[in-house]
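FAQ: What does a multi-protein file look like?

Like this. Sequence, then tokens, then the next protein.
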Amino acid sequence: MAADNAAFGFQYVMLKINDTLSIPEEDIEWQAIRSQGAGGQNVNKVASAVHLRFDVTASSLPAHIKTRILATRDKRLNKEGVIVIKAQQHRRQDQNYSAALERLAELIQSATHVAKTRRATKPSRGSVQRRLDSKTKRSKIKANRRKVDD
């Protein structure tokens, strides 16, 4: 893996997710492929798009983050637990590689975020009383508009 990345001229030691979490280079596998769409003269010669593969189950991530990633319903995660990211928006391979790494970091970062548990609350007694008073007041205003019976 590391030899593949070095052969293509991309060197990084760790992909930093946040202050406490990083992914070593050995956990990420990538492959250069041809981009889709119009490309002019170089369309059949240059492999500028990038397929990045990250095996979640075999990675060095903590177990609780692995389970959270595997529990997500993301289309980039296949049945074997491998995240596949295709980056082809740039014309240069190194820019696509950086974009794919950013997207991987984003995906893992979203799995590390734990949402606050919701606590059920009740309206205060004063707010309930104010609401009922305003309803009563409005009711009296509308009652005063009616026709008076003799």
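And here is the next protein:
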Amino acid sequence: MKLMKKNFLITGRPGIGKTTCVKRIIDEISSKGFKVGGIISLEERVGGKRIGFKLIDVLTGEEGWLARTDLTYGPRVGRYRVCIQDLERIGVGGISRAISSAELIVIDEIGPMELYSTSFKESVVKAFNSSKPVVATIHIRAKSGPFGRNILGREDSEIFILTFQNREIIPKIISRKILKLLDTIDTS
């Protein structure tokens, strides 16, 4: 028996629009009356210069820092330091809340910064193992590590590589698949 694909992974080069794709999916699924939870990661800029990345809990709107250039503690990734405390409070908390009370779980993103937290990795696995559909972005560099390979190699996952040519249609394709899983598509 063929395993149903319920986890949708979006990857592609940095800046291609993975987060924008996820936000469009959230808007589409929410507009149909479904509860969406999880986390979104956004660049934070001051004076046109990127200073870090914020994490936002989709259900509560709570925000925290994933990483910043001006932190003096935490694991270093490039010129940023990862704020493990916020990652676990907002990231792990947001994913856990989505598992328990949302109909769609969003994880933006699974990347080198996030993988410094064992709790984050455990919450990702719990989400993927849940009965609920998951939309996640995975950073190109995370794909080559053991955790990324395991997530990408799951039989219940479908992978989408975002490009300039397909980035307008991919959110619609994934949204249709999710709505079908949630039994809302009119097949007439």
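Q: Is there any per-entry metadata?
A: Some entries carry free-text notes. For the entry above: The first helix runs from residue 18 to 31.
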